[in-house]
Please model this.
Amino acid sequence: MLGVVWILADGFVIAIPTVGRDLGASTDQLAWALSGFALGACFSALYGRLGDQHGNRLLVICGCVLFLAGTVAGALAGSAGVLIGARVVEGAGGYAVFTCSLSLITLEFPLEERAKALSIRAGIAWAASGTAVFVLAIVLAALGWRWIFWLAVPAMLVGLVLTVWTTPELHEGKPGAPTDAFATLTLATAFTVLTFALISADDIGPGPVAALVVAFFGLIGVFVAIERRSANPLIPLEVWRHPTFTGSIAANFVISAVLVGIFYALALSLQTIRGLTALQASFVLLGGTLPIIALN
Model:
């Protein structure tokens, strides 16, 4: 749980202006450094399948190691390109931990206790996510932006040790189901294309942006076709027929996309245009997250 809390406590957005000045990064590069972490979500379905095959505990351990590697690389980054790569690696590991730890809770707790366990996890996770910007703004002011990465190392190491020592191996035992890596790659490519279109819209113009959006929907179509023909799809297509599931996914996608954009723009403008310190800007961003915490 400690590892999940730290992964969700991703307050990197508050350090964006400082990182830009230190590394000489462009606005687009900073946007990639922020968004690169979220691209790890594209592999969530694959992580779930691998957890079913090889054990969710093993996937959590591997995710912790991958997250630690990305974190150390981010702390040592001397250029924007290295930082972007580090954030992508962080996200890939972070979402493995997030996805498979959720599966561990689902499998470990009996049905009558499962909802309570998931609610507690969600509450702690959202609280960590909501307050991270404020806490890490203090770290930024006192120690510098690289310590936002360095402080994650002991937290994740403790989470890794606790997972190894205290967590039983649990999985649903589906050794015969192939992983369908091509479907995962197609989905990841689709969202990478969409992210590039959104970040680079001002630089490349409306024509290329429209072409990239068309490419995004084309890749989603390819993904659906792959899943439809697969005997063991990553995401069974019949689940999309349930309005509650589809509505929840759509709402979360829109909310996450909007919040990332708003927080990025606010963190940048409040510090570079309004002249606020990172700590002062964090109070503004914290005000936007408190209603989300309350609703969850």
Q: What stands out?
A: The mean pLDDT is 80. Residues 2-177 form a domain with the Growth Hormone; Chain: A; fold (CATH 1.20.1250.20).
